[in-house]
Amino acid sequence: MTSAIDPVKIASNLRGPVGLWLERMGEGLSPGRFRFCKTRSLAPSDGKRGQGITCFAVKSAWHIGAWQSWPQELKDECVQFIKSFQVNNGNFVDQWLLRRIGWDSRISLAKHGRFKKAFSDMQELKAQTVRAETRQSAATLILLGERPSYPLPMSWQSEQAVREFVRALDWSHPWGAGSHASHLVSFVSMNGGETKDGMLEAAFEETDRLLDAKTGTWGIGEVTHIQRINGAMKMLTAYDWANRPIPYPDRLIDYTLKNTSGEDGCGVLDKLFVLHKATTNAPGYRTEDLERFAIEALQEISAYHREDGGFSFYRSRAQRWYYGALVSFGEKQSDMHGTVMFTWACAVALSLLGIQDELGWHTSSP
């Protein structure tokens, strides 16, 4: 592997500054709490609020190999803080986030006299957010060798309910539909039980109907490259949770290498994640192309690295929104969302190059 770009140097130059930035985001706060960004952060950093920010900080530290060296008290506090958000029905609920999400959308709809839609959309958005936060929190705990205090909620009590849920998703937008399908699969996989295998089989039988054999992606109708690749990323997380082989991995590799999937944290990460998971199911396929792509991705990732030490979600500014809640003013600085995405992307790129372990980086699952 020869290249003017040195992946080892890039990874080494990122690791230290990111670790120091994470430390600064927790300075002066109760152990287990972190700021979303350095200046004018609008996300909460005190009280029982902001579990997603702690999940991001923990996973970022895990990716760069810093979690293992954090003080035990800090690690324990992070775990207990995340666990404190789980309620008896199994969901992880952040009341601050539920109060804040979607206000701009609600106000806009109300101004146009669409009051009923504003309310119904808000209810569905909250339900989706709770499901996403629950999966993220549970996955973070499992990553750390912990478990949620209660079983995750099972809204689907039968194979038929699973089928109806998958069919009702909007597969003309597989990025979102794949995400919801993946939540279902992860909840069923984590909960286990006698009906687990049948429910998982029902879910994948339904998504198989939406699989495009030419590209190895999912969707209905004229779907953009961005939707197909980012949607594939979501679906591959479902295959990961269920420990199932990926269909058409070689065609998925071809399609992803040929097309682009965006210019922000999600886009860069999703391309790498898709290629990484696909190549584990098609070992040796287009190895040189994948290594070349990984090296170029590392250079691209570096463009999001800020002088303050972390990453910004966008090239020119920080992320402003978290599930519809305003968390920053979008200034040119690092943010916790960009940092978790790009440290993860870097770890995946290093894994594609086969040098992740020797450099002390680690991948994770969403």
Describe the structure.
- By secondary structure, the chain is mainly α.
- The chain has a domain at 169-285.
- The protein is built from 15 helices and 4 strands.
- The chain has helices at 7-26, 51-64, 72-83, 95-100, 103-111, 115-143, 159-168, 174-191, 196-208, 225-242, 249-258, 265-281, 287-302, 336-352, 356-359, and strands at 211-212, 217-218, 321-322, 325-326.
- A two-stranded antiparallel ribbon has the order 1-2.
- Helix 1 crosses helix 13 (287-302), helix 2 packs parallel to helix 6 (115-143) and helix 5 runs antiparallel to helix 6 (115-143).
- The chain is globular and about 50 Å long.
- The two termini are 30 Å apart.
- The relative contact order is 0.15.
Write the layout of secondary structure elements.
Layout: H1 7-26, H2 51-64, H3 72-83, H4 95-100, H5 103-111, H6 115-143, H7 159-168, H8 174-191, H9 196-208, E1 211-212, E2 217-218, H10 225-242, H11 249-258, H12 265-281, H13 287-302, E3 321-322, E4 325-326, H14 336-352, H15 356-359
Helix pairs in contact: 1-2, 1-13, 2-6, 2-14, 5-6, 6-8, 7-9, 8-9, 8-10, 10-12, 11-12, 12-13, 12-14, 13-14
